[in-house]
């Protein structure tokens, strides 16, 4: 049996950071292309699809927190080894790490593509990837506090960009929102499914949980984070639908970034270039936290030092980036991650609930004895 | 080895022997050892001291004449007749040597078992003057002086409270200097005090030199460009920080005090913000932070925009920029580097030269060279404006160290902007952000109140609220008493 | 601890240094660029594009910065590349502000040439799509462009001013594409013409998709815009028969004018709603609510009293209704639904999306009822 995870008190974080950290994990490269993806499926009824996805999301996070609460100060690895035994637990954690790493890679490739499409067509991919990885290494080396801290700072560095959407909002045509309720239930479900691809990232809580001070607030704050994400996606999708006519929206690969092309200020005539560069700040929290998650979980499985796993992860990602450097692979990876995320993010917590209930009962019995 | 005496007790000895031994064995035959044999009514008395280290006048009036007039020449009589306190008796040659270095006058009568050491140190010091590097418009302007006694005097006068705690440390093995740890025992955080104590105790250096040098030995990360301890020459600011629950250090022979723990944003505050009315204070504080951001972004943005991102330049500017750029033979990066370097040159020259010449330098450098550079087509005139503006903005930072740090990080930022445009620029900003999050000051977070996110501290870091609203100290220092005074009922 | 940090720092520095040397971008330094502000396109006999490229030419001794290059090519980008063969500057499109199509292209369809603008992220979405009835190169070679650095910038200012004054419908690239893809609300683009060597907005072209099918004069555009958009501070000149106002008009000494009365209304605010009443019979209800102030009136009458004011408002409403009917019937004739009646139809009918062909068939059959109300709020400092 693995020794219990013991987090010293000075390493612990306030629960309120969950709101920011979980939210930034969910909002990343996906949001730039999301409005089109859901619009292709559901059309003008996208908001219904988002609401359906939101409901499942809130249930999934509630399940996750329930499971985590019943095992008390254990992370994913601890829970899995406690319920499924040493080997199965480790194997499953490894799978989880593989999924996280895949997400890491897909986010990185996506950002590389942004930069090449919008700003520097001739900038080599490995260079952009290296830039990101240097920052990830630098941040994760500082441990969980710095990883979370950097995410919080970058969140504030990026959230103000919502303000620049005022100009596109002024160009909305309200006719574009009608007619409503045209989609069939299948389409809606399909749309909700596609939405959930963009909502993954909250799996972070499985690893971050032991590091949080004030467990009683975890549930509340993680729900807030989910609500915040949903609100933002709803906001951006609704603007996109109003801003583009339907055929136009279906054609734009990154509706959000294309939308920012109309934004211009007296000192910055083209804001989209600044935005794409600044998108690094949106992407970095994802990468930093994912790298931290996977290196930490690897350490939990195999023991040893955190940083060697970190180097390993970044190195493999860097090498892989050479092989998967075109739009086809980017799409392929994003799709794979989305599908895997459906299992790890939504199905897995619900599957874990019976085990957690069993664990609770066992704990209560022991307590009674 | 010469300084060691073989015998543990040296005395009694002959008067002439003592003089010779002290001079030879302890001072390498220094010509500055002054020895006099005084004939008194009863016996001979040897007086040894170091020239320059004692007050001659004091020796004459208080020691020699009093000794001569003494009824008897035993030590008890001498002690009572010489009007100086703290007279000590010494037994070994070593003790005598160190006492002389501290400005003691040694008296010896033949056949005695000990010798007397009477303090008459001569300390030349300048009078406390107006602060030079941190000049103020409002509020107390006096600055620390090089003597720790004067400095402690300021602190005691300013903080007239029994809770003011002072601890004494000796730092430096070859050249020991006195360091005083100062804090308010009912406010300062215990962890901070403990941490500072242990850092000072475990410090093994030859010489503390100066407080800003000492800072670099005890800082959390001395590789960082950003100072983590605040070094100030204003007793007023020093005391204000103590009242906020911070811990202060005073170093002998140094005209500045050290304050820790501090956050990144503390470097952009002055006590003046508190002395002016709250709305002005808030505005000026916010302005300094905006100035800091402008100062590090303006030139790199210019370089990035002109090298890669011509799209973002507004139409009206594009033409005038284009016109003035056509005559410039260098790429924008080089152009900006040259001009920034020029500004640094003028600043450094102005700092090194005497004040009056320095001002002339400023005018010559700023106006004449600036004008000539544009006319010669070395730089575009818009860049001149930008560079001057960002230099100006960097000088609004009240802390000299932080201001310099901000000016210096512009250079790597410019390089990144010149090589990879906005991507490079954002990369370097992200790097700086992570770096700042990583730093700690005396084990307290450095980038507070942004991370750890502490909205309650925005009051004391970015803006300033009226006193009725700011009845509390900053949370991030974790003081023992958070409340300064009860909220007024109005 | 310190030692480890030092090692990390060294590793970092090494990485950064290798990157520094490893990868440098190709630069776009502004004085080495030919920054295009406007393109004009015509088709020649061989069905090839004849492009006119207007670009900035920086020169510290001359205040204007203009160079015009003519080149041909099959595609948009080929025109640019061929123009670049005639210039020592690297021609870039990042600050393209106006794109002008000659009549030869406007009649065949402009969409094929717009693809690169949408595809290439470097080009702004805020450039104006325009056309002309004389060849584009004639328009762009007009030499009087006020204080603007070149004719491309002038065109941009010209159109922007007109849009801001609410004289024409905005046709930025984004808006053009949005209308193009939006079945049932056809795009409108300004038609430019040259007079005395100076370019002016002459008419507004109604498009059927990407094909120019006819134009509205600037007077008619007021009514097109009234239905399509809303006014915040528009202005309109109206002309009435004098007869109904005869009783209220104050006679002055030696008053000698024609039979018409002229009224100018500005600061006009409007709010229009188009409702499809019956999707089967294609009957629409159009409600227009206006308010504004009078700033000029050729005859004096006491508007402080209710009757003359009522009379005036009634006349305005009558006038506007007639004009609206005329404009809509013109648009029916052209087969270009610039008002967005089709969008309303699509929104009301469930099921399949409207196609352009289907609406082309239905559009001439629509029937519109108007309900106009106007509120004259102020009439200046005399009665």
Automatic annotation (TrEMBL), chain A:
Q: Which InterPro entries match?
A: Spore_GerAB
UniProt entry keywords in alphabetical sequence:
Germination, Membrane, Transmembrane, Transmembrane helix, Transport
Q: Where are the transmembrane segments?
A: 15-34, 46-68, 88-111, 123-140, 152-174, 194-212, 224-244, 273-296, 308-324, 340-359
Q: Which domain of life is it from?
A: Bacteria
Cited Pfam families: Spore_permease
Q: What are the boundaries of the signal sequence? A: none
Q: How does it sit in the membrane?
A: Multi-pass membrane protein
Q: Where in the cell is it found?
A: Membrane
Q: What is its main location?
A: membrane
Q: Which family does it belong to?
A: Belongs to the amino acid-polyamine-organocation (APC) superfamily. Spore germination protein (SGP) (TC 2.A.3.9) family.
Q: What is this protein called?
A: Spore germination protein (Amino acid permease)
Automatic annotation (TrEMBL), chain B:
The record's Pfam families line, in alphabetical order, gives: GerA
What topology does it adopt in the membrane?
Multi-pass membrane protein
Q: Which InterPro entries does the UniProt entry name for this protein?
A: Spore_Ger, UPF0353/GerABKA_families
Q: Give the transmembrane region(s).
A: 286-308, 382-401, 413-437
Q: Keywords in alphabetical order, please.
A: Membrane, Transmembrane, Transmembrane helix
Provide the protein's localization.
Cell membrane; Membrane
* Sequence similarity: Belongs to the GerABKA family.
Q: What name does the UniProt record give this protein? A: Spore germination protein
TrEMBL record, chain C:
Spore germination GerAC-like C-terminal domain residues are 206-380
Where mainly found?
Answer: membrane
**Superkingdom:** Bacteria
Q: How does it sit in the membrane?
A: Lipid-anchor
Kindly list the places in or outside the cell where this protein is found, as annotated in its UniProt entry.
Membrane
Indicate the segments forming the Spore germination protein N-terminal domain, all copies: 27-193
Asked if the Swiss-Prot or TrEMBL record annotates the protein with the keyword Signal, the reply is yes
Write out the entry's keywords from A to Z: Germination, Lipoprotein, Membrane, Palmitate, Signal
Q: Name one Pfam family in it.
A: Spore_GerAC
Which family, according to UniProt? Belongs to the GerABKC lipoprotein family.
Please give the name of this protein.
Spore germination protein
Source species, please?
Alkalibacillus flavidus
């Amino acid at each position: 049996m693995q020794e219990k995870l013991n987090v010293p008190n000075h390493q612990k974080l306030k629960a309120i950071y969950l709101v920011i950290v979980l939210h930034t994990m969910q909002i990343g490269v996906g949001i730039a292309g999301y409005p089109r993806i859901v619009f292709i499926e559901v059309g003008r009824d996208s908001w219904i699809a988002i609401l359906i996805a939101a409901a499942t999301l809130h249930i999934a996070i509630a399940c996750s927190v329930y499971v985590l609460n019943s095992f008390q100060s254990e992370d994913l690895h601890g829970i899995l080894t406690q319920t499924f035994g040493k080997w199965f637990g480790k194997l499953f954690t490894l799978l989880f790490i593989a999924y996280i790493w895949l997400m890491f890679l897909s986010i990185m490739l996506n950002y590389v593509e942004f930069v090449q499409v919008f700003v520097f067509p001739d900038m080599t991919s490995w260079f952009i990837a290296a830039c990101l990885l240097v920052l990830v290494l630098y941040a994760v080396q500082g441990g969980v506090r710095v990883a979370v801290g950097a995410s919080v700072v970058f969140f504030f560095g990026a959230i103000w960009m919502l303000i620049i959407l005022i100009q596109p909002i002024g160009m909305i045509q309200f006719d574009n929102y009608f007619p409503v309720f045209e989609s069939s239930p299948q389409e809606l479900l399909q749309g909700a499914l596609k939405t959930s691809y963009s909502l993954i990232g909250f799996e972070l809580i499985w690893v971050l949980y032991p590091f949080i001070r004030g467990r009683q607030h975890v549930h509340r704050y993680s729900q807030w984070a989910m609500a915040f994400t949903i609100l933002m996606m709803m906001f951006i999708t609704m603007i996109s639908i109003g801003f583009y006519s339907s055929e136009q929206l279906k054609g734009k690969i990154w509706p959000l970034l294309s939308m920012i092309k109309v934004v211009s200020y007296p000192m910055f005539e083209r804001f989209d270039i600044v935005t794409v560069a600044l998108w690094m700040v949106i992407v970095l929290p994802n990468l930093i936290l994912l790298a931290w998650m996977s290196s930490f979980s690897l350490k939990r499985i195999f023991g040893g030092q955190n940083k060697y796993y970190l180097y390993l992860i970044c190195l493999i990602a860097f090498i892989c980036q050479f092989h998967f450097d075109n739009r086809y692979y980017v799409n392929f990876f994003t799709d794979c991650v989305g599908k895997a995320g459906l299992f790890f993010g939504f199905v897995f917590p619900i599957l874990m609930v019976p085990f957690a209930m069993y664990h609770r009962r066992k704990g209560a019995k022991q307590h009674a004895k | 080895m010469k300084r060691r005496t073989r015998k543990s007790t040296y005395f009694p000895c002959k008067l002439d022997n003592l003089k010779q031994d002290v001079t030879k064995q302890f001072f390498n035959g220094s010509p500055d050892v002054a020895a006099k044999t005084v004939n008194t009514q009863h016996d001979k008395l040897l007086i040894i001291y170091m020239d320059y280290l004692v007050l001659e006048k004091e020796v004459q009036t208080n020691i020699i004449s009093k000794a001569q007039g003494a009824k008897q020449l035993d030590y008890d009589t001498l002690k009572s007749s010489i009007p100086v306190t703290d007279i000590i008796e010494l037994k070994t040659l070593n003790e005598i040597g160190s006492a002389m270095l501290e400005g003691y006058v040694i008296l010896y009568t033949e056949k005695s078992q000990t010798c007397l050491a009477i303090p008459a140190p001569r300390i030349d010091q300048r009078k406390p003057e107006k602060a030079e590097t941190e000049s103020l418009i409002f509020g107390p302007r006096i600055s620390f002086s090089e003597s720790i006694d004067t400095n402690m005097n300021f602190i005691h006068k300013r903080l007239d409270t029994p809770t003011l705690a002072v601890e004494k440390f000796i730092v430096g093995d070859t050249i020991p200097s006195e360091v005083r740890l100062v804090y308010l025992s009912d406010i300062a955080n215990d962890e901070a005090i403990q941490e500072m104590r242990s850092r000072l105790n475990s410090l093994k250096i030859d010489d503390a030199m100066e407080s800003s040098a000492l800072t670099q030995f005890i800082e959390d990360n001395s590789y960082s460009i950003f100072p983590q301890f605040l070094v100030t020459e204003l007793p007023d600011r020093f005391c204000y920080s103590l009242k906020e629950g911070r811990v202060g250090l005073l170093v002998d022979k140094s005209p500045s005090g050290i304050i820790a723990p501090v956050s990144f944003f503390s470097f952009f505050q002055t006590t003046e913000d508190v002395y002016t009315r709250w709305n002005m204070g808030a505005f000026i504080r916010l302005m300094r932070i905006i100035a800091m951001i402008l100062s590090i972004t303006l030139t790199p943005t210019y370089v990035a925009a002109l090298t890669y991102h011509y799209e973002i330049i507004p139409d009206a500017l594009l033409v005038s920029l284009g016109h003035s750029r056509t005559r410039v033979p260098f790429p924008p990066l080089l152009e900006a580097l040259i001009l920034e370097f020029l500004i640094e040159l003028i600043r450094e020259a102005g700092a090194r030269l005497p004040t009056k010449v320095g001002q002339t330098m400023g005018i010559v450098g700023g106006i004449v060279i600036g004008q000539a550079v544009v006319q010669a087509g070395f730089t575009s005139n818009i860049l001149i404006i930008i560079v001057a503006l960002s230099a100006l903005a960097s000088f609004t930072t009240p802390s000299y160290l932080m201001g310099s740090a901000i000016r210096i990080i512009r250079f790597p930022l410019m390089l990144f902007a010149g090589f990879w445009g906005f991507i490079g620029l954002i990369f370097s900003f992200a790097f700086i952000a992570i770096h700042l999050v990583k730093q700690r000051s005396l084990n307290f977070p450095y980038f507070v109140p942004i991370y750890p996110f502490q909205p309650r501290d925005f009051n004391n870091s970015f803006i300033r609220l009226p006193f009725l609203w700011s009845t509390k100290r900053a949370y991030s220092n974790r003081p023992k008493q958070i409340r300064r005074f009860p909220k007024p009922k109005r | 601890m310190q030692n480890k940090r030092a090692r990390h720092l060294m590793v970092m520095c090494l990485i950064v240094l290798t990157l520094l040397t490893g990868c440098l971008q190709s630069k776009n330094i502004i004085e080495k660029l030919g920054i295009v502000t406007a393109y004009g396109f015509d088709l020649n006999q061989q069905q090839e594009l004849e492009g006119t490229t207007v670009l900035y030419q920086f020169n510290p001794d001359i205040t204007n910065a203009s160079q015009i290059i003519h080149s041909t090519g099959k595609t948009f980008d080929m025109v640019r590349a061929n123009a670049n063969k005639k210039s020592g500057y690297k021609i870039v499109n990042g600050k393209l502000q106006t794109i002008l199509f000659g009549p030869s292209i406007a009649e065949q369809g402009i969409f094929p040439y717009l693809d690169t603008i949408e595809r290439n992220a470097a080009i702004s979405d805020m450039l104006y799509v325009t056309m002309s009835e004389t060849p584009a190169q004639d328009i762009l070679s007009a030499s009087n462009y006020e204080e603007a650095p070149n004719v491309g910038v002038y065109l941009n200012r010209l159109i922007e001013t007109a849009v801001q004054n609410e004289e024409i419908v905005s046709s930025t690239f984004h808006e053009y594409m949005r209308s193009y893809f939006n079945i049932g609300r056809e795009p409108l683009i300004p038609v430019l013409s040259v007079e005395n060597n100076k370019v002016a907005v002459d008419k507004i072209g109604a498009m059927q998709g990407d094909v120019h099918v006819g134009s509205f004069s600037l007077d008619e555009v007021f009514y097109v815009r009234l239905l399509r958009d809303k006014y915040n501070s528009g202005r309109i000149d109206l002309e009435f028969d004098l007869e109904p106002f005869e009783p209220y008009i104050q006679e002055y000494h030696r008053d000698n004018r024609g039979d018409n009365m002229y009224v100018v209304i500005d600061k006009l605010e409007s709010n229009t709603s188009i409702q499809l009443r019956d999707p089967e019979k294609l009957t629409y209800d159009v409600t227009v609510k206006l308010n504004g102030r009078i700033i000029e009136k050729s005859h004096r009458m006491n508007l402080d009293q209710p009757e003359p004011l009522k009379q005036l408002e009634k006349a305005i409403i009558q006038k506007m209704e007639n004009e609206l009917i005329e404009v809509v019937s013109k648009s029916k004739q052209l087969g270009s639904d610039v008002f967005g009646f089709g969008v309303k139809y699509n929104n009301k009918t469930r099921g399949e999306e409207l196609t352009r062909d289907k609406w082309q068939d239905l559009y001439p059959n629509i029937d519109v009822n108007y309900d106009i109300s106007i509120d004259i709020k102020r009439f200046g400092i005399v009665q």
